[in-house]
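Hi R.,

Here's the chain you asked about this morning:
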Amino acid sequence: MRLDKLLSECGVASRKESARAVRAGQVSVNGFPVRTADVQVDPDADRIIYCGRKVLWRKFVYVMLNKPDGYVSATEDGRGERVVTELLPEEYRKRGLFPCGRLDKHTLGLMLLTDDGQLSHRLLSPKRHVAKSYAFHVKFPLSEDDITSLESGVDIGGYTTKPCTVALENEREGIITITEGKYHQIKLMMEAVHNQITYLERRTFGPLSLDPALARGEWRELTEGEIELLNQS
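And here is the predicted structure, written out as tokens:
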């Protein structure tokens, strides 16, 4: 792989920035300064130093984020809204990480961000039925009939939702688990039983569970075990 391509894919530097750093003698491979940015390197074997920092190459990156309120699930927004990728360091944004799926602007909790498009497509495919669970609060008490309707499927504007599960903690709070992700789905489901969501937080996405150590707006890379579970989903 070309050195400048590797640095670009790692989010360390653009190809132009790589060339400037090479000319300034700030890039070395296996302890020796390189003369050109297009030199071939082995990402798995060579030790690459860029401006005093060791470069770690990975084919894909996977990040768990605890989404705070008010952020849009996108990499950019033409209306000037804050986007979730703003919460990541610049090197991750340069890699081109994007949200795997979306949460509404005021929905909190677990988000997966990655640059692995194939995995993202698989996890979001309607054929996969990947489960997602949410902690919720509603304005009015939910009756047994409401729960039965929600779990059986309700009309949310010409579309009947697939079966889900609802586990109440009290008459206004609980966990709902769905296997699809229509726009504003849970909000519309509650409106279908004449109720209103007042709080919504995603707790799980497929095999991933929100790390309780992550405060709102904090993130961490997935562990090898979590990545393996995702790839098995």
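One quick note: Residues 15-23 form the longest helix (9 residues).

Cheers,
M.
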